[in-house]
């Protein structure tokens, strides 16, 4: 497993330059308003969402399971413990196809647990379906509910 940190940034290109230098790691994937890094040391998946008007820099925290077995064991544990806010779902967007679930901690911080199934889905590159975060980005809809909208960050 490796920790995932998803941040809202005001300027994606400026953030990519900064984080590439800070972690001495090139960007792994870049899309419109989105980028991610697979950092070896410390083991970290850093995800950047370009949201110039975001009120907070933290988008969400996640844990990437590096094997399907690891994901299945973890999701079984979280679902049976009643911590998961929804069941396991297979999702896809312009960035990747994944198995995932969401957990909210007592103060409403969202944690994403996921396993990448396809890092470059051909059909996903043509997805233009809008969301609050452009193509992807975990968002709470606090206007009517505290439920999380399913999104992808891979």
Keywords:
globular, eight-stranded mixed sheet, two-stranded antiparallel ribbon, 154 residues, alpha+beta, 2,3-Dihydroxybiphenyl 1,2-Dioxygenase, domain 1, single chain
Give an overview in words.
This protein is of the alpha+beta class. The chain has one domain (2-149): 2,3-Dihydroxybiphenyl 1,2-Dioxygenase, domain 1. The chain has two helices and ten strands; from the N terminus they run E-H-E-E-E-E-H-E-E-E-E-E. It has an eight-stranded mixed sheet with strand order 2-3-4-1-5-8-7-6, covered by helices on one side. A two-stranded antiparallel sheet has the order 9-10. A hairpin with a 4-residue loop joins strand 6 and strand 7 (97-104). The longest helix is centred in the middle third of the chain and has 13 residues, at 68-80. The protein is globular and about 40 Å long. The two termini are 14 Å apart. The model is unreliable at 124-151 (pLDDT under 50).
In short:
With 154 residues, the chain is an alpha+beta fold. It has 2 helices and 10 strands, in the order E-H-E-E-E-E-H-E-E-E-E-E. It has one domain (2-149): 2,3-Dihydroxybiphenyl 1,2-Dioxygenase, domain 1 (Roll).
């Amino acid at each position: 497993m490796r920790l995932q940190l998803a941040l809202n940034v005001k300027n994606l290109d400026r953030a990519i330059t900064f984080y590439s230098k800070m972690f001495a790691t090139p960007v792994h994937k870049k899309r419109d308003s989105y980028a991610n890094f697979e950092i070896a040391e410390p083991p970290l998946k850093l995800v950047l969402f370009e949201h110039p008007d975001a009120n907070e820099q933290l988008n969400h925290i996640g844990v990437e399971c590096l094997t399907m077995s690891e994901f299945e064991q973890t999701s079984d544990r979280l679902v049976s413990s009643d911590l998961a806010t929804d069941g396991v779902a297979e999702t896809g967007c312009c960035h990747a196809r994944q198995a995932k679930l969401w957990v909210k901690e007592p103060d409403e911080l969202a944690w994403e647990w996921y396993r990448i199934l396809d890092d470059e889905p051909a059909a996903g590159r043509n997805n233009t379906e809008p969301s609050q975060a452009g193509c992807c980005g975990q968002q709470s809809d606090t206007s009517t509910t505290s439920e999380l909208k399913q999104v992808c960050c891979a």
